[in-house]
Design goal:
It is a single chain. By secondary structure, the chain is an alpha/beta fold. Helices cover about 25% and strands about 30% of the residues. It has an eight-stranded mixed beta sheet with strand order 4-3-2-5-1-6-8-7, sandwiched between helices. The model has no long low-confidence stretch (mean pLDDT about 90).
Amino acid sequence: MHVVWYTAMSIDGRIAGAGDDMSFLDAVDGSGEERDFDDFIAGIDAIVIGSGTLRWLHGQGHDLPHRGLPIWLLSHDEELAARAAAADPAGTPVTRVEGDIAAVLDGIAAAGHERVWIGGGGNVAGQALAAGRLDEVILTVAPAVLAAGPAVFDHPALGRNRFELAECREYGSGSVRLRWLWTPLPA
C-alpha cells in the first residue's frame, strides 16, 4: 500500500497559521492546482484524517474532506465521527479509529486499499512518518511566512528521515509544487 501526504505549507513549514488560519493559501497562484488535485484524488482509494483537520473543515462549512472515498478518522470523538458519517451515509463510509497509525494502515491495506491520502493534519502525517509508513509527500509551497502554527510534520516522536525529490515545478507566480519519495537513510 502506498501512503501519500498531500498538503500546502508556508515557506517556514507551517500548514496553518496561529488559530488554524489558512489565509496564507491566498498567496498561492493556483494555475493548475484544481486539475492536479483532481488527478491526484482520482488515484486515491482511501483517506486518513485527524480530528483537528475534520473539525477545521466543519468550521469552514465542509462536512468531509472528499466524498465517495472511504475515510478513516483518527479520533476519540464519537460525536465527530457520527457527524461525518451522517454527511453522506450512502456514498462515503467513515470509520473512527484510535491508537497506533501503523495498525490503522494495516487495517486499511487488509480492506484492499492500495493508495491512501493522509488528508491532514501535520500530527497524523508525523505519526505515519514516525511509523515508517509514509511513502510520498506532495507539497504546494506558498510564498508566505507564518511564524506559528502546526508544522507539516508535527509529531514529537519523529526521527530522521530522507526523501528523494521526484518533482519540482513552479505554480503560477511565486508558488512551487514539490513531490518527494521516501528513501531509506544511508547505512
